[in-house]
């Protein structure tokens, strides 16, 4: 049933190499305010083995047709049409075998902060338990033959219709997030590790209390020099405990989180002001502009100058409108 529903959509030919850098990090250009995408991929004209990649985005791999083997780190997972695989995104992963006359898959990908950040309620962290808090012996797959799959397929189908439908922002974005939360809720409920999940939830409440004030501090002072030691001290933790907790809460390191805050603010300033790029670099905490240019491009796949050039026509039109208003 799920495969038949997916036939209503157009699938793009799979091609990973153009998107991966030398470290095999796979960049996908997502909207800053809506870091979510669905890709419908056809493997009909290509053959494995495919190049493996990794990325910061969280990801679900759902084969629509065919069967094969998906590798994530050291783990090999056999899959069939309709299975839902929770990807270990920070490890090299991808299809190593794919058989069948028709070979297609749905990939749901999003940044962790789309669902949970330091400012979110503690309960929101449970949506990400299938990605972050699996027992080592767990196999992160919902099989198409399992009872939970039918409801999960329905939610994924509704999500695809919302994402590829004709309704545009902001309504379709809100709809996509609501339906993605449903998918994640069903996954968390399926991977039923009650004792572990309850223990993590209690811990998460405490982490949220301790790290919530750090979030507010970072928003106000992210351009300043902030060390791991000073951040840990702010929440009364040792450095090693702080780094472990921060990674569990946000899915990324403290340095990565702080860098992202700075780069997002830089992008906003590039689009909304005429400040020189060097001044913006300094304002957001990057005294070295060459380093700023490198990390900016790594995050957005565009240079600061490209972001500014793309925004200039919009800025000129807004200026003309403002002038006419008076």
Report on this model:
The protein has helices at residues 2-6, 129-132, 147-164, 171-190, 194-221, 228-234, 239-250, 254-272, 277-283, 289-300, 304-325; strands at 12-13, 36-42, 58-63, 67-72, 75-80, 84-86, 93-99, 104-110, 141-142. The protein is built from 11 helices and 9 strands. The protein has 3 domains: 2-190, Jelly Rolls, CATH 2.60.120; 194-252; 257-325, Arc Repressor Mutant, subunit A (Orthogonal Bundle), CATH 1.10.10. The longest helix is centred in the middle third of the chain and has 28 residues, at 194-221. The chain has 326 residues and is of the alpha+beta class. α6 crosses α7 and α8 crosses α11. It is globular, with a radius of gyration of 21 Å. A hairpin with a 2-residue loop joins β4 and β5 (75-80). The model is unreliable at 313-326 (pLDDT under 50).
Q: What's the order of the H and E elements?
A: HEEEEEEEEHEHHHHHHHHH
Work out the oligomeric state of the chains in this entry.
Answer: single chain
| Rg for CA atoms | 21 Å
Largest sheet: 6 strands, mixed
């Amino acid at each position: 049933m799920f495969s038949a529903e997916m036939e209503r959509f157009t699938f793009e030919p799979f091609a990973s190499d153009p998107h991966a850098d030398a470290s095999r990090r796979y960049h996908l250009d997502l909207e800053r305010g809506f870091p979510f995408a669905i890709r419908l991929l056809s493997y009909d004209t290509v053959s494995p083995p495919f190049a493996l990649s990794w990325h910061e985005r969280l990801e679900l791999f759902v084969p629509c047709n065919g069967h094969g083997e998906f590798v994530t780190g050291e783990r090999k997972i056999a899959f069939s049409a309709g299975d839902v695989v929770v990807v270990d995104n920070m490890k090299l992963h991808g299809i190593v075998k794919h058989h069948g006359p028709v070979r297609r898959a749905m990939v749901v990908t999003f940044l962790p902060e789309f669902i949970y950040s330091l400012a979110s309620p503690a309960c929101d962290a449970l949506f990400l338990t299938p990605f972050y808090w699996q027992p080592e012996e767990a196999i992160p797959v919902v099989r198409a033959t399992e009872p939970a799959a039918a409801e999960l397929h329905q939610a994924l189908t509704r999500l695809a219709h919302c994402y590829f439908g004709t309704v545009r922002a902001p309504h379709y974005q809100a709809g996509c997030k609501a339906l993605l939360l449903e998918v994640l809720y069903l996954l968390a409920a399926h991977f039923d590790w009650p004792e572990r999940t309850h223990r993590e939830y209690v811990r998460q409440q405490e982490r949220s209390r301790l790290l919530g004030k750090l979030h507010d501090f970072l928003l106000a002072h992210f351009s300043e020099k902030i060390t791991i030691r000073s951040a840990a001290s702010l929440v009364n933790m040792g450095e090693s405990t702080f780094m472990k907790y921060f990674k569990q809460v946000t899915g990324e390191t403290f340095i990565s989180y702080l860098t992202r805050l700075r780069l997002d603010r830089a992008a906003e300033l590039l689009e909304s002001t005429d400040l020189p790029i060097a001044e913006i670099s300094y304002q957001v905490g990057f005294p070295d502009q060459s380093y700023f240019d490198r990390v900016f491009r790594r995050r957005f796949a565009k240079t600061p100058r490209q972001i500014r050039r793309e925004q200039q026509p919009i800025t000129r039109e807004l200026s003309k409108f403002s002038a006419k208003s008076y």
